[in-house]
Amino acid sequence: MNNKVKFLQSINFKVAIVFMLMLLATIEIIGAYFTRQLEQNTIDSFETSIQVPSLITNQISTQLEKSDYTKANREISNILADYDTSQINDVEVIDGRGIIRAVSNINDSDKVGQRSTNSDIKDVSFSNQKFSKIVKDNGNSSLVQITPISSQTGGTATGVIYVRASMESVFADIREVTLTFLTASLVASLLGAVIALLVSRAITRPIEEMKKQAIRMASGDYSGKVRVYSHDELGQLAMAVNNLSVRVEEAQDVSESERRRLDNVLTHMTDGVIATDRHGNITIINEMALSFLNKSEKEVIGESITELLGLQDQMTMQDLMSNQQELIIGINEGSSRELILHANFSLIQRITGFVSGLVCVLHDVTEQHKNEREQRQFVSNVSHELRTPLTSLRSYVEALNDGAWKDPKVAPQFLKVTQDETERMIRMINDLLSLSRMDQGTAKMELEWVNLNEFLGYILDRFDMMIEKSDDDEKTKKYSIKRKFTPRDVWVEIDTDKMTQVLDNIMNNAIKYSPDGGVITVRLVQMQNHVVINISDQGLGIPRKDLNKIFDRFYRVDKARSRKQGGTGLGLAISKEVVEAHHGRIWADSAEGRGSTFYISLPFEPLSDGGEWDEI
Ligand code: ADP
Predict the structure, then answer these.
(1) Contact 556 CB / ligand 1 (< 6 Å)
(2) Which one of 8, 37, 210, 334 has the lowest number of neighbouring Cβ atoms within 10 Å?
(3) Model confidence pLDDT, tens digit, residues 155-187
(4) Using one digit for the tens of pLDDT, what is the confidence trace for 54-80?
C-alpha cells in the first residue's frame, strides 16, 4: 500500500501521466477533426453520387413542357425506370404547378396527379435553387435532394426532381472508420503509456540515485558514488553531487579533527572550562572543572551555571551576562578539601552580536590564597614573637636605668634576663634566616656519603657528654639515652651540618619535654629502600590533633611552656625543610602523657643485593 502511494507520488509516475495525457489529448483532437472531416467528405461525395444527371433532367424537362399530360407522365415514368441506381430509394418528378407527375416507386403510383404538400419542393420551385437535407425516418437517416428542372428554352423552372436516398450504408462506413480509429488510438495510448513510463524511468533513475546518495551523505556515509549516465544536465548534476560528497567529507574530516583537537585541549587544560547556552544551562564542561566541583558530567549537563557555582543567591544569569565580572568562588569551604577558584566569565557572541551563551574559565587559586594567608600569618607571628622579648628587655633596661643597677642583688639577675632574651632573639633570627634560605633555595646542600650508624653515634655521644658534665649540677635535667642501631652499616648521602641541626633539635625537644630521669631511645632501622631514625621519649606527649601542626612555623602545643624553655617554635619547621631537601620524610607519633616518637625516614640504596632489612 505504502509502495503504491509512493509510486503515485513519484516524479516517474508524474512524468509518465503528463506524457500520456498529452498523447491522449493529441489523439483526441486529431481524431475529432479527422472523423468530422471524413463525415463531411463522405456526405458530400454521397450527395454528388445521387445527383440526377443533366441528360435525364433535360429529357424530363422536355416531357414536362408537353401538353399531353398522360403521355408525358408515361414517358417520364419510363425515363425514371431507366434511371435506376442502387443508392436511390425514391425519385419523384413534380411540375411547376406542384403536381406529382411521376414516381419511381410503384407502390406510390397513386400519388401521381396529386399536388405535393412538401414545402421544400415549393421553395425550390420558387427559388430555382438546389436543396438537400438529411432526414430521419423511423431511426433511418436518408438524404433528400430537390433539384430544379430548368426549361429547355431557359427562364423559370418547369419542375423539380425529388430524390431520397438512404444514408445507412454511408453512416455504417463512417462508424467503421471511427471504430478503427478508436482502436488504433487505444493501442497507441497503451504503447505511449509504456514508452512514457520507460522514458520517465530513464530520466528519473539518475535523480533517484542522487536522492539515495544525498540521504547516505546526510547520515554521514560518504563512501558511495552516483553513476554518471550521460553528459547532459543530469550527468553534470551527478558529477556535482559526487564532487559535493568529496568536499563535504573533507569538510567533515576537518571539523571532526578540529573538534577532537578542541576536546583534547579542553580535557588537558589545567583550568576548568564551562560553556552554557544563553539561558545559562551548561552545555560543555571539561574534566578539570568536573574535578574542581567533584561532579560527574551527567549530573551537570543542562544544569544552571549559577546553581552549580553556588552563585544563585548573589546574582542572576542576567547579572553575569551584563557584567561578566571576575569572581572568587569557594568550594567546600571550611573542609580539608577546600578549593578557592578564580572564575572569569565571557560572552559567546555571533557576528551579528546575538549572545548565544557564556564561557566560564575556572582557575585554582587555593595555593596562592593559602600562601598569601600564610605569609600574612607569618609576618604577624614574627612581629608577635619579637615583641614579647623586646617588651621584656625594655622593662628590665628601664628598671636598671631607674636605679636597679645600683642594687647588687637584683642587678645581676636583671642583666641575666636581658642576656637570655637577647640570645633567644638571636636564635630566632638565625632560625628565620635558615628557613628563609631554605625557602629561597639558596641554602646549598653539602652532600657527602656518611656511615649513618657512626654519625648518629657521634651526635648521641655529645648528649652523653652533656649528662656527665651536668652530673654535679643539681639544676640540670637528668636523662639517659638508649641506642638500638641496626648491626649493618648504613651509608647515606647527607649534609652533615644540616642533619646535625635536625637531630640536635629533636634530641633537645625530647630532653626538654621529658621528666627528670627520663629515658630517650634512639633507633636506627634499615628498610628495603630507606632508613628510619626514630627518637622516643617518655615525656608529656603531644595531643593527636596537634601532631600534624607541630611542623608548622611558630606552632607550639603549649606556648608559655615552650617560651619559658627558650623555644622559638621554628625548630621542627626547619627540621622538616631539611629532611625534605634530602628527599626524606619526618613525622611524629605520640601517646599523650606517655611520650612521643619522632621518625626521620631517608632514602637509601643497599650496597649489596642481600635484600635483608630490619623489622621495626
Ligand atoms: P620549640 O622551640 O617550641 O621546641 P619546635 O618546633 O622544636 O619548637 O617544636 C614545636 C612544638 O612541638 C613545641 O613547642 C612542643 O609543643 C612540641 N614538641 C616538640 N617536641 C616534643 C616532644 N618531644 N614532646 C612533646 N612536645 C614536643
Answers:
(1) yes
(2) 334
(3) 667 889 999 888 888 888 888 988 998 898 889
(4) 888 888 888 888 888 888 888 888 888
Ligand 1 contact via 586 beta carbon (within 6 Å): no
Q: What is the CATH number of the domain that holds 308?
A: 3.30.450.20
- Going from the C-alpha of 299 to that of each of 295, 317, 469, 476, the distances in angstroms are 7, 20, 71, 66
Confidence of residue 476 (pLDDT cuts 50, 70, 90): confident
CB 162, CB 118: distance < 8 Å: yes
Whether residue 56 is contained in a domain is answered as: yes
**Could you identify the atom of ligand 1 that is nearest to the CA of residue 559?**
14
Contact at 8 Å (CB) between 574 and 434? yes
User: Which residue, of 166, 187, 212, is where some domain finishes?
Assistant: 166
Same domain, 458 and 582: yes
Instruction: Give the tens place of pLDDT for each residue, 489-528.
Output: 999 999 999 999 999 999 999 998 888 889 999 999 999 8
- Asked if 381 and 563 count as a contact pair (C-beta separation under 8 A), the reply is no
Q: Do residue 355 and residue 465 come from a single domain? A: no
Pairing of strands 518-526, 355-364: unpaired
- Kindly state the helix (H) or strand (E) to which residue 49 belongs, with its residue range: helix 11-50
What pLDDT score does 108 carry? 83
Q: Is residue 101 part of a domain?
A: yes
Q: What CATH number should be reported for the domain holding residue 451?
A: 3.30.565.10
pLDDT of residue 7: 75
507 Cβ inside 6 Å of ligand 1:
no
Q: Look up residue 422 and give its three cell numbers.
A: 637577647
Atom of ligand 1 nearest to the CA of 510: 23
Domain, as residue range, for 135: 51-166
Q: Give me 309's grid cell.
A: 557555582
Q: Of 166, 186, 209, which closes a domain?
A: 166
In a domain, residue 2? The reply is no
Ligand 1 pocket check: which of 551, 555, 556, 559 to mutate, most ligand atoms within 8 Å of Cβ? 556
- From ligand 1's centre to the CA of 276, what distance in Å? 53
The pTM of the full predicted model, rounded to 2 decimals, is 0.52
Residue nearest to atom 13 of ligand 1 (CA): 556
Q: Do 158 and 285 share a domain, yes or no?
A: no
Ligand 1 center–CA 550 separation, angstroms: 7
94 and 160 in contact (C-beta within 8 Å)?
Answer: yes
Instruction: Read off the C-alpha cell for 355.
Output: 549572545
Cell 416507386 -> residue: 105
- What are the tens digits of pLDDT across the range 267-325? 888 899 999 998 999 999 999 999 999 999 999 999 999 999 888 888 888 888 887 67
Are 466 and 357 found together in one domain? no
Number of domains forming the structure of the chain:
3
Same domain assignment for residues 349 and 481: no
238 within domain boundaries: no
Which DSSP string do the residues of 159-191 spell out, in sequence order? EEEEEEEE-HHHHHHHHHHHHHHHHHHHHHHHH
Is beta strand 157-166 parallel, antiparallel or unpaired with respect to 339-349? unpaired
Do residue 493 and residue 603 come from a single domain? Answer: yes
Residues 470 and 570 in one domain: yes
89 Cβ neighbours under 8 A, 6+ residues apart: 105, 142, 164, 165, 166
